[in-house]
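Subject: complex prediction, re-run

Hi both,

The earlier run crashed halfway through, so I resubmitted it with identical inputs.
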Amino acid sequence: STVICVFEKDAIEIDEDLLANSARSLETLVYVGMKLGVSKKQANVGLPNLQNCVLQ
Amino acid sequence: GQGSSREDSSSASESSSASSSRRSRMKQRLHRRRHRSRSNSSSHHKHLAAEDFVGIALLSLLRAEMKFKDKWLACLSFGEQTFRTHTSDQTDKPVWNAEKKLLLDKNGPRVARISVFETNKMHKNTLIGYCEIDLLEFLTRELESDSSPECETLNLLDPSSPDKVVGEISVSISVEDPIETEKSFARRILSIVDYNEDGHLSLSEFSDLITAFGNQVAANKKEEMFKAADKNGDGVVSMDELADLLAIQQEKEPLINCCPVCGETLEVPDKLNHMIHLSLCFDEGTGKQVMTGGFLTDKQANYGWMFKLSEWAHFSSYDVGLNSGSSGSHILVFDRRTKRLVEELIDGKIALSMRAIYQSKLGLGLMDTGAKELLQSISEKQGRKMNSVESAKDIPTFIEFFKDQLNLAEVKHPLEHFKTFNQFFVRELKPGARPVACPERDDVAVCGADCRLTAFRSVDDSLRFWIKGRKFSVQGLLGKDICSSTFIDGTLVIFRLAPQDYHRFHSPVSGTVEQFVKVPGCLYTVNPIAVNSKYCNVFTENKRVVSIISTAEFGKVAFVAIGATMVGSITFLKKEGDHVKKGDEFGYFSFGG
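This time it finished cleanly. Structure:
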């Protein structure tokens, strides 16, 4: 059996080690609760959202 | 009838034998081999030598006479395979009339063992009697006597006291005409690769056939071979022309390098042996044989040959030590906890079968001949079995088999708690057995299952490195109603569970469950061999349930639980509108269809 999670575009930054293994076509043995990735929303905290910026 | 008469064109008298009986042609073939052997070695053989022992034997289990009434089935074991008949009615004179073709090979097995079981729905089948037949001895005797009987009655012996006769079984053994074997082989492969069913092979159909035979010749070489085969120059290859090609080309430069059904490499340069092997494999694959088979032992004969197409074959055969020794193939996995590469063993035959079926157009063509339904039916049957009280007795064996990979200390309930195997299979773990990373931070997503994981920033990456099914798309996976444009370019994480894994899945994020959509489908294996096949689209064709979790930190997350061979039952523990916290139990997979 398999579970597939699809995240919206640019919603998550997956942990680098998982991406690196997958890019070598290598599966990673993991357990429930291990870290998968971080929300990009949070990863980008501190950066101004240019769309909301107003020239004064 | 093209092939074998050409095999030894020096013998003019043989061509006149075309109208003789099946057995006499076999005798002539054997005679030819003896003659060749004599002229080569100058030695004289009064009896059949081992090298004469080749061909297809038709062995029929006709009927038996037992000493009490019951429901009976018989198993025929030959070499590494076992085949079984259907179960008779309640009687002391069961009639099966079940026929099986067996490959007689000079280096292969000679002794066939027949076992007769009484069956009982509530208990295991019980072996009542058995007998053994030395086929070489039987057929040699037949050849030396022109009036040898087709049918023979053999005593069935008590397995615990072999001196005691517990019944009789009637069998018939004959030899298939080699010319007929070659003819039917050419007819059969033509019909399988002849996609437009016009009775001829076009160049592209011909190319697919050569590829399916494991032949890596270049495209221009294929075209050259095609032109050579197309003797009358009509632009297509007919059955006769194909048979000619197989006969002539195979002797010059082997055309058939591997069997497209079982994946076995055909190394012995013997055209007839190849055809016999392939004919038997095709018979097995298309279910045309009266007896079903493909099992290693008569114990396994209660299961279907389709087990070979799934990693779950391990499950049915954990007590025969399949995944050991040099026959094992490997799937490499990186253990994130220990930071080491580990090998997952898979039986070589299973891997080859899966490759042959899932990674070839020809193999998947076989799937269309009823195998999908068979996978469904096997899974449903297995579900019923694993929900029965009797199945609980399999739990200790399963634990022993996977002892290095199962940690019973973390299981919530003691073993006595599990009344069926399925209950054990979906076992809960003790609180804290799976610590959740950064529990207070909902912006950190976690792994949703004990599994082998692959993750890709985009679908394009997933197609480049992992999913090779040509028809894979996020829209196909999620369905039109759920799929939005942001998912189409989204990030993909694949959690693959293996038989020994903890089978509950957990939510990777915190949020609200918006909806569940059930998508019906097949139950192909989700093994990487199938996922990596360009012909097979397991993720978009398998049965699945798509759920959407709405989150504050990640937007919407699609969570797709996909069923597979044997483990096709998907249960969710949350319902629409429920709030889930990351790490919460979300559902489980269990045995069933």
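The beta strands of chain A are 2-7, 12-14, 27-30, 35-39.

- K.
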